[in-house]
Amino acid sequence: MKITNLIKIAWKALLLNKKRAMLTMLGIIIGISSVVLMVSIGQSSTTIISNQFSGLGTNLIMVSNVRKDVMGVTLGTENMKNMKLKDVDAIRKRARHITKVTPCVTAMEQIVSGSRNCPGIMMGANIDYLDISNSKIEKGRVFTIQEEETAAKVCLLGQTVIKTLFPNGENPVGKEVRFGKMPMTVIGTIAEKGKNMTGDDYDDIIIAPYTTVQKRLLNIDYIHMIMASATSEEDSEVAVEEVKSIMLQTHKIKSDGDPDFEVNSLTQMLNIMGTIMAILSAFLVAIAAISLIVGGIGIMNIMYVTVTERTREIGLRRSLGAKNKDILRQFLLESAMLSLAGGIIGIIVGLLLSALVLFAFEMGFMVSITAVVVSFIVCATIGIFFGWYPAKKAAALDPITALRYE
Q1: φ and ψ of 273, to 5 deg
Q2: Residue 304: CA atoms inside 13 Å, Cβ hemisphere, count?
Q3: Residue among 251, 256, 153, 253 nearest 206 (CA)
Q4: Is residue 122 pLDDT above 90, yes or no?
């Protein structure tokens, strides 16, 4: 019998029991839509995280203090004074896979402009900071080496600070603001970078020469962190090991000793986040796949019922010359069509749900073509796999016994 005829027969048989067919497809619809939704959310989240980290510079390397436990009490890294400017100089001179490096010191105070004020975080760094952190000057200029050496009272403002202190669209360049008790001249503004997924605002920052923060604000001779830029993203891991080796030497710590610092690259963080998201997505997809198995069992169950209901029809077809393989194909086609129809509806529902969820959380809609194609293939496989045994049972019926079936 021609395949087109078998498809027509299978289609008519499904239309005779529309409600039963829809209920049978429900498990497949739920499973496929869940898989598409989970994959879309996972892919969008991974892309957003990657883009946000990339906004900081994918070859960024950070050297920070390790927290210490004293008498069971964990001290914050701000209480540790082991990192000095000599570490920065050593990295700058000896690290071959580092292009730029800056010391970093931070201070928190109220920043005031006229009658307006807000809490502010000031990052003290050198002139390489903007390139290392992938930041751009929007208006004005960056501070000079001379201003850095003289601990000049100059600063750059992030967009969030500008919107708070100058809400009427004024150009802050050239104006004076007060950070704590110290007046500072605004010499430039930093282009907007936005927020990350945890809500941290990259634009809520004030940047000044590290000497200004270190000497005039905090009166310290140590630094809080070192930021550096590797020659390329591919060289990040080599650069991390290079910086570790230099820091161990400057801090006079043996290779098997316990370092009082830690070195991390943005590439490492991206890989860790990617692994976490992949595991989470796989876990959620595995849960959603249970619905597919349940749907497949439902298809097998309903096909058994169908074979029983149509025993006389099978006997009649066999008596008219239909072969075993024709009966087998007919019921396999019915099973596959049930599964594929459920899969198509599930894909459409999954895409609609993905769009609603992703737009609601402002994550940006992304369609995983791979997930759609794989879902379609899985549906066809489920239909054939779970429909095979009922179809084989139908094909094996004795035509005389089938005709006598009541």
Answers
A1: -65, -40
A2: 7
A3: 153
A4: yes
As a whole number, the mean pLDDT across the chain is: 81
What is the three-class DSSP state of 404?
Answer: helix
Return the closest-CA partner of residue 402 out of 282, 293, 320.
Answer: 320
Distance CA 86, CA 99 (A): 17
Does 60 fall in a domain? no
DSSP class of residue 190 equals: E
Q: Is 359 helix (H, G, I), strand (E, B) or coil?
A: helix
Last residue of one domain, picked from the residues 259, 286, 316:
259
Query: Hey, what amino acid is at 328?
Result: L
98 neighbors 60 (Cβ within 8 angstroms): no
Phi, psi dihedral angles at 162 (to 5 degrees):
-60, -45
Q: Can you tell me the distance from the alpha carbon of 315 to that of 401, in angstroms, rounded to the nearest whole number?
A: 8
Specify the pLDDT at position 6: 64
For tokens 């990617």, name the residue: 274
Does 61 fall in a domain? Answer: no
How many CA atoms lie within 13 Å of 173's alpha carbon, on the beta-carbon side? 12
Structural domain includes residue 57: no
* C-alpha of 108 from chain center: 31
Which pLDDT belongs to residue 71?
47
Span 283-313, pLDDT tens digits: 777 776 777 777 778 888 888 777 777 777 7
Domain, as residue range, for 160: 67-259
187, 143 Cβ separation under 8 angstroms: yes
Structure tokens at 10: 């299978």
Tokens of 328: 């087998």
Total domains, the chain: 2
CB-based contact 55:371 (threshold 8 Å) = no
- Shared-domain flag, residues 214 and 111: yes
Confidence of residue 78 (pLDDT cuts 50, 70, 90): very low
Pairing assessment for the beta strands 73-75 and 261-265 based on DSSP bridges: unpaired
Task: For residues 15 and 125, state if they share a domain.
Answer: no
Tell me, yes or no, whether 307 lies in a domain: yes
Phi/psi for 234 (5° steps) reads -65, -30
Is residue 240 located within the same domain as residue 310?
Answer: no
